[in-house]
Design goal:
11% strand, single chain, five-stranded parallel sheet, alpha/beta, Rossmann fold, 2 domains, Helicase, Ruva Protein, domain 3
Length: 271
Amino acid sequence: MDFIKITEQESNHKDLEKKSVSELVNAMHEEDNNALKAVNKVLPKITELIKEIAPKIKSGGRLFYIGAGTSGRLGVLDASECPPTFGTPPEKVVGLVAGGIPALYSSIEIAEDDLTQAWKDLSEHNVTSNDFVIGIAASGTTPYVVGGLKQCQKNNILTGCIVCNANSPLSEYADFKVEVIVGPEFLTGSSRLKAGTAQKLILNMISTISMILDGHVRGNKMIDMQMSNAKLNIRARKIIMEELGIGQEEANKLILKHKSIRKAIDNYLNE
């Protein structure tokens, strides 16, 4: 099938500089809703992808995201939220962006043109067939990501992709494809908009559901959450109080003693 770069097509909205703020807000909101609709259409593919990732994580493997620009930053963002939310080590879910850490806060778009760098970055983390690698690229053509997935397949590492064009070069090297077709952007070619929104929604599902399946959630509570500030300590206390049916003072004592929501609950129940 032919590859058409829909993400680069002309916006459906014309003469933006002539529109009122209200018109612009409503138009952008309409396009954001289209991103939600696009994600809805690929829920079976997302489900299939997560079903492959979860056993890897549960058996001690890791999840890697590779991307460039906005797509890469979204991967790093999702990965960085896993330790505080689920108490996982930083190496469990890893986000790699073309250009490295400086690319998180400064545009280094030239870095995405290197076909070999992603594999070098993955190799620094000693990636193996026990791990799973997801390439994120709105266009599906980013050399950094395409080259990375191609090398993963050569090394028997399972791969997935999140792209916003069908039949892209990146999909060719993904064992599990999520092609979320959001259509032309509000600003022509600005894939940080709808494409980025759709990618973030999908990444939320991948990391959250994988961690639920790995046992980091009980009921609907984050029992392995890191208690790293006052707000999170209050949340931890509330979880313990609700789970055990105890008062604030007793919950505080358990937190001080065990330094962990899971340990506090389990030890209380086993006493």
